[in-house]
Amino acid sequence: MASTGCPDPEPKPPEPEPRYRATIRRTAHGIPHISASNLGGVGFGQGYAFAQDHACTLADQLIKIRGERARFFGAGPGDTHLSSDFAYHALDLLERGRAGLEAQPEDSRQFLEGFTAGHNHFLESTGATRLPCAGKPWLRPLGADEMVAYLINISLTASGYRLVDAIAAAQPPSPKGEQSVPPALPPREEAGLASNGWALGAERTANGRGMVLANPHFPWEGELRLWESHLTVPGQLDVYGVSLLGVPGVVIGFNQDVAWTHTFSSGSRFTAYLLKLVPGKPTTYVYEGQERQMTARTFTLPVLQPDGSLKDVSRTLYSSHHGPLLALPGLGWTGSVAVSYRDANLDNTSFFTQFLRMGRATSLQQFQEVFATVQGSPWVNTMAADREGNVWYTDASSTPNLSAEALTKWQQAVATPGSPQAALLAQGFVLLDGSTAVNEWVVEPGARSPGLVPFARVPQRSRRDFVFNANDSYWLANPAQPLEGFSPLHGFERVPQTARTRMNLVALTEVREGGASGADGRFTLEELRATVLDNRGMTAELLRAQVVQRCQGNPTGSARGQAVDLTQACAVLAAWNGRYDTSSVGAPLWRELMGIYGTAALQNAGTLFATAFSPAQPMETPNTLVPAPATGADPLLDKLAEAVLRLGDASIAVDAPLGQVQFTPRGGSRTALHGGVAVDGTMNVVSYRVLQSTLDGPTPRGTVINSTSGLTTDGYVINYGTSFLMAMHYTDSGLEAQALLTYGESEDPSHLNDQLQLFAQKQWRPILFSEQEIASSPVLETTTVTRD
């Protein structure tokens, strides 16, 4: 062939690899299984998938931590938006986020930058036009430094998160002595999150391998919901579980070698300080006999006006050397005293690294080393099990390190009736004298940050049978080997346990035919699943038979000045099996009776129990119904009469089944629900709480009749409780796991209530973890996303 004389064309250079590439495979219920070749890529895929499901909630929270709510929504009712903005500017989370991003180790930084890139990539896609907040001016791209700031904000859930209004309201008294009005604070038991967590070892499982039960009780609305995902980087990461909305990685879950869960710690994540002010100088306090001037910072913020214009509003906020000033109920800023606080998690930039490396651990020992070296756990107990049947518990939460002298003086003050220390402890505050260096946090080698308790001195326990927690302290993580001798800021020892903790302990320790683990005392996966949703009520198991006997002997009580016939009430309680299923007749009546007594009566001998709590028998005591008085009215029967009338106030019949009156209106449809509240003592909790800062607001409900039981004129309306349920065990060939996310994976109508219906029917779904399980799923939607 003759040559043309023209050179062959140069081969086209290969297309450069994109910086980020991830594959997202969604299986049934919209669960994303995300894979990539590196950590940045899998973070990119997770950020993209999360934004598909919940970008608007994260955008709402970013407005909050940027301090821009008033800019977009006005000052808000009672200046709530403006107060939030001022407080977040005072906490300076954005600057902390910028510094925190620079301090991230390389693996964490790659993942975080990938997550934010994936989130932003979705916002640029056509899919973002379907978001409920599409087109809003506050739906903006996210910076990696803002992601770190958001993670710090999540770390403040047990501290600064609930003090925002108190920070914004802290103002010195006027020249006339007028004080700012302190905001109300929720009771301690309503301010925290709840959960049950079990790790079962070789001695208590049917196959001799590790098993974990995760049962967090979190809000069903707002930013503290959970989101499920599976993350895979071959050779580096293969982890499945849930995280809080907008939090990268997996917080509760498992990999091939270790599984874990968390519960909310009862310890203290901050200390408050009572400052003694210099007379005539309300912004000057005395410290070690010397005058110290508070630091004043004035913030000027734009506030949206009704006509659409912006108006600047300024406020000066103050700090002592401990931290921001607070306005607290009953202890406001006067001419003589003020209150400041120091937060153990305000500088916690290790939050994400903690959970990323937990997910990458290939043994329980390596898992424990993450806690020892990173120390980023903010406010949780951890229960973990490995495939060899070893289990481990720790409360490694960020905790102030006080000297023995400081602790002794505080405990003496708490024991003094009427002291501010005793009053504030009921709100979850440790109040110290801020005028002396004795109460400064002690700097000790090995701590994540100066002034925190180092990991070597936090409560922890390794076992081969079980460890657990249900939101009481670390003390009885395993009752056969109590944990004692730790700082009370970690929690209290040798004190009464809640009814729910006692129910957990009964289920864990009973070995009998018909018991939770059967006659052999070794749990199967089926027994574990059944136990958490069996809805046994501890208070009914302790007292129902005695109450029925007393009631049947004299079925009459008095309430509101009238005699009440208790014949039907007695019969209903006699026939009830003590459980809180939707078909349970008698459960509402018992709940109202216990609600009238209140949670305090369940802790020790008094108006309800005759036998006092004993530290030697923490599971069995208190017990035994207080006997009727020798003469006169029987307080028990009068309270039962009041319970009957309260049900009547809500138009509820004494023999109404629980499912007829306990429900969630989620998604616009009424779904009957099983489960109990605190005074019921069930493991499976469903109740009503407002624990959110998102602007969409909580589920509405009728007029509250009994705040302890949650009874309203609409019945028992549910927006909180059992959220993610996971039961898993390791097997000789791998693992098996089942789960539920009660409120669904996303706000898309197809997934809003799909798992709620499963929960209502006590049906679990299998977790797809192996490649074979995912590839063979009958529901499989695959998307590959890339970005340069």
From TrEMBL:
Residues annotated as catalytic: 195 (nucleophile)
GO terms (BP aspect): antibiotic biosynthetic process
Any one Pfam family match given in the protein's UniProt record, by short name: Penicil_amidase
Molecular function in Gene Ontology: hydrolase activity, acting on carbon-nitrogen (but not peptide) bonds, in linear amides
Key words of the record: Hydrolase, Signal, Zymogen
Keyword Phosphoprotein: no
InterPro entries: Ntn_hydrolases_N, Pen/GL7ACA/AHL_acylase, Penicillin_amidase_A-knob, Penicillin_amidase_dom1, Penicillin_amidase_N_B-knob, S45
Superkingdom of the organism of origin: Bacteria
Family, similarity comment: Belongs to the peptidase S45 family.
Protein known as: Aculeacin A acylase
